[in-house]
Amino acid sequence: MPFVRPADIRDLGVLQEFDQFNCVTAEVLASGSCIVAGFEDEVLAYATVTRNFFNRRFVEFLFVHPDHRRKGVADVLLEFAERQVPGEALWISIALGNFPVQSLLHRRGYKHSGVVNDLSVIPELIYHKPAVGG
User: Fold this and answer.
1) Cβ pair 79, 57 in contact under 8 A
2) What are the CB-based long-range contacts (under 8 Å, 24+) for 11-16?
3) Can you spell out the DSSP letters for 76-111?
4) Least CB-packed of 24, 28, 58, 86 within 10 Å?
5) pLDDT tens digit string along 30-80?
6) Which long-range contacts (CB under 8 A, 24 or more apart) does 127-130 make?
7) Rounded distance between C-alpha atoms, residue 62 and residue 101, angstroms
8) Helix (H) or strand (E) run with residue 12 in it
9) Computed over its alpha carbons, how large is the radius of gyration of the chain?
10) How far is residue 15's CA from residue 22's CA, in Å, rounded to a whole number?
11) Cα separation of 130 and 90, whole Å?
């Protein structure tokens, strides 16, 4: 079973080794918006959750080390993020062709909310998981 926990500054080096988005910085870790997951003591994935999407809780980045995908770490990251503020919806956007994450979101009860074109070559799909009772 994978572990999940808030990230801290000691995770910076390992995150930067596999972070293809180059978004994990000391400032991001200090803000408390990053969570990590992996097996035993090895960090293999991260997510950043902010309020930079219309002041709603938004998963800006969800990234799993390419050698460790489909082992459940993205699932535990989302579960942890959902439980942090159970009375609020959680939003996420993913590239149109990211079928593994689309499947994960559907399994976790996320609803497709729309498509954003023209941010990049590939459209972004917007999903959200409604708040409990919402």
Assistant:
1) no
2) 11/36, 11/43, 11/46, 14/42, 14/43, 15/43, 15/46
3) HHHHHHHHHSTTS-EEEEEETT-HHHHHHHHHTT-E
4) 86
5) 999 999 999 998 999 999 999 999 999 999 999 999 999 999 999 999 999
6) 127/91, 127/92, 127/93, 127/94, 128/89, 128/90, 128/91, 128/92, 129/82, 129/89, 129/90, 129/105, 130/89
7) 9
8) helix 12-18
9) 14
10) 9
11) 7
Q: Are 101 and 73 in contact (CB under 8 A)?
A: no
Determine the length of the chain.
134
Cα–Cα dist 25/41, whole Å: 20
Model confidence over 6-25: pLDDT tens digits? 999 999 999 999 988 888 99
d(CA 123, CA 106): 18
Q: Which long-range contacts (CB under 8 A, 24 or more apart) does 79-83 make?
A: 79/4, 79/108, 80/4, 80/35, 80/37, 81/35, 81/47, 81/49, 81/57, 82/108, 82/129
| Cβ count near 44 (within 10 Å) | 22
CA diameter of the chain: 41
